[in-house]
Amino acid sequence: MALALLAAPARADVVLDGEQHIGDNESVTFTPSDPVTLDEHSSSATRFYLSETIVVTAVRLDGLVQGSPAPLSATQPFRVEFDGSTRTGTFSGGTLTLSSPRTLNAGLHLIAISPGCLRSGIQQFGSSCRGIDDEFDMSFSSITLVTQDPTSITLARNLNRRRHLGDSTDSSNDNFGGRWYPDAPEGTTLDIPFTLDRNLRLTEVRLYRLRDTAAGSQALSRATLSIVNTTTGVVTSVGTLGGDGNPRTLSASLSLAAGSYAVRVAAGQMRNPTLDADKIHDDLRWNDILLLFGVDPTAVAGYFNAVDPDQNAVTGIVRTKTAGSPLEVDITAINGGALINHAGDVNVQLLDASSDSGVLDSYGCRSSWVPKENLGTATFTLTDLGRKRFSEQVTDAYPKARLLMTDTTLNISGCSTDTFAVKPATFALSVTHDDWENPGTATPLNNVAAAVSAPIHKAGRPFTIRATALNADGNVTTLYTGSPTVLAETSVLGAQVGEARADLWTTTNGIAQTDVARYNEAGAFQLQVADSTFASVDAADTVAADRTIGPVTVDVGRFVPDHFEVTFNTPEFRPGCGAFTYLGQRFEYAAGKSPEATLTAVAFAVPATTTTNYTGTLFKLPGSLAQSVYAAKDSATGANLALDSSGLPLTDALVTDEGAGVAKVTLTGASGTTGFRLQRTVPVVPFSPEISVTVNGLPGTVSDTEAVATSTSVIFGGTDPGTGILFTGANNTFRFGRLVVENAHGSERLPLDVPLRAEYWASLSGSTGFIQSVGDTCTFVISPTAIDLVGKTPGSLATDVQTVTGVGVTGAGRVNLSAPDESGFVTVRPDLDSATNVLPFLMGDWDGDGDWNEDADDPTGRASFGQHKNETRRIYQREVVGN
Hints:
By secondary structure, the protein is mainly β.
């Protein structure tokens, strides 16, 4: 076996190269080239050398072939011995996973593979095997020791193929049934290749189980060992192999430059190569060769570099590191663009490399890079081969950093060729405000309850976020300067998650603060804070997650709407009497035209956005509002009009949750006798009023139980000219009216019609007075029971109201009285404010006291029977007698 201590670290697994065959040559499946019997493999185990301690978790036989004598399954197990201690485990596909890991310290070790034997078709090991049993013949190209630590290294490279120079007729001590399988004929040479990737010094060559298989008197002679440079062809002798020995050690002190080489073993010559028939001279055989190397003492580092452990020593990078966590890098000694061996103490400092204004010196450093932290010392030994793992904490944060390495003894320095960042490990967050509209630090915003409780903050209004940068030990990284980003990660209270934003960060002593953070939704949410730009210097070589500080989340709330925006429908009144309304007559909203106000809960913004979560448990508006306030003015004169709304219910505005941040305010109760009326005092000419409705009483604002209010008063219409609530068909004229009962007389033997006439006050050719109210559609039904006949003379006058023809669009009607069959008279008085005749708005000031709204002002007229001759109303009548 050849073992080379290479200049560059091998991978974590240790590979023992070299084909082997365990078994004999009786198998029809195998033709062994380098056979080893079962017993011999156990007693003459393969040797290998480790430069440091490793932990082996599994043993893999690469290129495994099994058969005994017929081919067996690749799942047939084997057993492994380390330094005479048997190890077993689970086996699959050529790999034996050890039941418990095996620790191997630095130094020389032995490994033996035992494939077992077949006994009654079942595999056996050790003493259970008998000579008559079939052995498990097995061959493989190499043995791999799978290690536990992927970062561990070994300086060993192992070749474990048995070697033999000679012929194939030697029979003594062969253990193979009289046949050899030599690598090369006797009297020739055998080259075993190896490579070096740097200058090293060969210090020792070991051959194990070196022996001559010749007859007793034919001792090993004239066999030599040399090192061949296979590139230049130069051969350098190392020594002569004289006599049997175990092991045979050759001292060597040979400096070898990086390149390709071979160990050349030359056998001694036959006594008479031409005539001598004896062919057993100098058959040479050995099990293992170890080449031990040391560091070339002429190597001197030119400068130092620092790279991540998986990176090239010269051109590698350093990825983002975390403050307070171990800084895992390799310090490398470089000369001539390659690793060079080094021994000595190297001091390591962290530099703030934010400024590149300084000139680069011969060690790759700039004077503008400022030393910040002394990280400790990396002590190189020759076995480190110029690459030393370094792991120390950096306590603070740096957006641009480099490492400075200095060997003060040799006065050699070096700055890491790659700039990297040291980021804080996390943020400690606080979210606060001074009040619900202003930022500050007085009160934490940590309310996630739907019930009415403090604190609350208006959506869209600024609040304060403080992000304190901490290292992995929980200490503040005072050198952190950055502007975190925020995100509303999830909604904690409310169906929808809104948008969170924060600008204008100021950072002092590692604490980033913004006083303009905003959230545009109602409820509570999970705020996420992160900084993905602090370590942007590593954007090209470090994944985003490793460069990002955080994300860190915290629940924030509770947010309420900033205000309610109000939109209005276009309500309409229905005229009380067709195309007009009498003063004092009740009127109402037209069907489907009641006032409706839509209240939209919004955040503070331009333009405002709806807080859609303001619904359900977060909806805080009351179900009803206080009675509305009505006002009216004469559009022509601007005079205030007395509007009576006493007929309305005390709660005339209902509030409903329409969902998604929208509420509806609907006015009710203005119908029939519960409507409104403009009070009548003294006669006025027809006019058009301007009417307004202020919801929830003056000043008309609507607030929820948490004082979130409408941005404007909820007022329908207005009292300025042209602003009032409309009447259907623009029929918004009001008349001051009265009902007139005219006197009538006729025969006592016939029914009598008493004329009725509706009138209103109007201008008459420059003067004022009542005229017939043409177009009246509301006085057409007067109940006969509401016509009082009073003052009958004589008292026995037998007349009664038969029918009443109500006033129609012409403004005229009549009361029909029955014939009394006797002379007399009676006063006809409609009761205009009775339960059946609700017409008080047609009373007249018949008693002249100026009060138009009292019972004494019901209209009256006299009906006379047989008292007067019928009036002909003719001036001249002439009777024409027929011829």
